[in-house]
Structure to design on (263 residues):
């Protein structure tokens, strides 16, 4: 019988994969991919709790929809910043993006 | 039911691991698309059919495509080694494994209360009613957030020269 804990384990593993991607990638777009994995893990958690703890409400699914909307906004803005940095300074690697330090 | 859960989870985790391990950014983006499909499958198993459709539509259809466009527009050097790890690979691996150990331990030892008896609601109807009646201010705020994000992305990404 698949219970709540199974989904929580999968979501925890996905979140940690996302953390690894965010911490160890050089390319800014790969870091955005890691953030997407972390947001997806949170969504799985919310929907699993909704399904197993409150089956006659949809509040967890509403939260998941909000997270999806915020993720879409975050990706569009992040990619705009990455593209702008690439066009003006020819930067892709995040450890070279230090122009605000001067 | 049980085998479907393990199938989707295996696809999800293998594809996600491939995304962070691969050194080719295009391969990473395509593997990430596959893992988003697996997440949609998990949503279907949790009887969140509307969320599964939104997942495929927004994540696979919009976000992954947007990221592929980003990859194509920011080419620098060879694509085979476009996704190299930085010098904190060991620390990152340690952090991720430690976090997973912590989370897994707390999930394993937590006793969740027994689920209440209830029939699953028809999710699209219930979501529509909750969005447009009870939480309509939050719904409008989300719309305004998306509008501002679009305008900001245009403003930032515009050629300023």
């Amino acid at each position: 019988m698949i219970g709540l804990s199974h989904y929580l384990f999968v979501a925890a593993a996905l979140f940690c994969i996302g953390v690894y991607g965010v911490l160890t990638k050089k390319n800014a777009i790969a870091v955005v991919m890691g953030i997407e994995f972390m947001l997806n893990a949170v969504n799985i958690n919310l929907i699993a709790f909704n399904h197993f703890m409150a089956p006659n409400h949809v509040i967890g699914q509403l939260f998941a929809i909000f997270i999806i909307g915020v993720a879409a906004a975050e990706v569009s803005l992040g990619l705009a910043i990455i593209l702008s940095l690439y066009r003006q300074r020819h930067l892709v690697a995040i450890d070279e993006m230090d122009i605000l330090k001067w | 039911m049980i085998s479907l859960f393990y199938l989707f989870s295996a696809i999800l985790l293998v594809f996600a691991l491939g995304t962070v391990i691969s050194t080719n950014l295009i391969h990473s983006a395509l593997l990430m698309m596959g893992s988003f499909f697996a997440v949609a499958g998990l949503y279907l198993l949790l009887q969140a059919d509307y969320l599964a459709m939104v997942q495929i539509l927004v994540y696979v259809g919009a976000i992954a495509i947007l990221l592929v466009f980003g990859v194509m527009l920011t080419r620098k050097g060879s694509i085979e080694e476009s996704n190299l790890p930085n010098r904190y690979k060991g620390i990152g691996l340690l952090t991720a494994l430690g976090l997973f150990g912590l989370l897994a331990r707390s999930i394993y030892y937590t006793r969740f209360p027994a689920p209440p008896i209830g029939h699953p609601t028809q999710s699209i109807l219930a979501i529509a009613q909750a969005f447009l009646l009870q939480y309509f201010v939050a719904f409008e705020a989300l719309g305004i957030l998306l509008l501002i994000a679009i305008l900001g992305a245009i403003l930032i990404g515009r050629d300023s020269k």
